[in-house]
From TrEMBL:
Signal sequence, start to end: none
Gene Ontology molecular function: any one: hydroxymethylpyrimidine kinase activity
EC number annotated for this UniProt entry: 2.7.1.49, 2.7.4.7
Pfam family, one: Phos_pyr_kin
Name listed for the protein in its UniProt record: Hydroxymethylpyrimidine/phosphomethylpyrimidine kinase
Source lineage: Bacteria, Bacillati, Bacillota, Bacilli, Lactobacillales
Catalytic reaction(s) noted: 4-amino-2-methyl-5-(phosphooxymethyl)pyrimidine + ATP = 4-amino-2-methyl-5-(diphosphooxymethyl)pyrimidine + ADP; 4-amino-5-hydroxymethyl-2-methylpyrimidine + ATP = 4-amino-2-methyl-5-(phosphooxymethyl)pyrimidine + ADP + H(+)
Amino acid sequence: MVNETPQVMTIAGTDSSGGAGMTADLNTFAAHGIYGANVVVSITAQNTQGVRQVQMITPDMVMAQLKAVADDLAIRAVKTGMLGDADTVHTVAKALQQFDFGPLILDPVMVAKGGAQLLSDAAVEAVRTALMPLATLITPNIPEAEVLTGMTIQTPDEIMAAADKLHAFGTQNILIKGGHGDAPVVMDYVRLTSGDHFWMKTTRFDTQRTHGTGDTISAAITAQLGLGLDLKSAIIAGKAYVDATIRDGILVGHGYGPLNHLAVVTAQNQPEVYDDI
């Protein structure tokens, strides 16, 4: 009877306003009916208007948390969020090679919604070399994909070329999120090692309440994997969930408000899936 309840984990920073980071991940896990463990790598003082201060947790304490979870829980899938610096990235990479936490969803959080840089230049290189080869899926938005690849990405062909380059770094599967910008539709691109690749299309919803969107979709995919879905189905379900959390908004804060993690997914939220555009 021990550890029969499905369990997943987030390795991320806190958000004192509750909208992003570890809090968004745990809210997403709970909304999917799955148990969530959390390893804290940083503490942030932030709200919907921006990040005010960041305090990193020591690498020894990060490793101690990871070992404590590994010694007792049965984690089926794990995601990373804001990792902050190169020492933390290398610590997490070492633990992921030492402990079996299931598939890794890597959300390369680099810049907060308000513009604050959350990943140092040295940490970006550590993500490329130490963490990306371990990832089952990486979920950058277009600006993050530009940093990781060194490319300018504006067209569908450039998005696909960026996915090729990310794959060359060792990542198995890629989801490049197209939500930045102001186009009337959002097009996300997925490339899988199976050879399958597709686009997910949703209609843009005009709102500033999008704080924690990247955390939420990666956490939703992690939760779906923990519940037993295959990767393609988990990605599509994660996209539908985050669309629902944006459309069924809540009124919190004066800036980029948080999502509604208790939103109910309906047929309206299902993305249109295309092999080509």
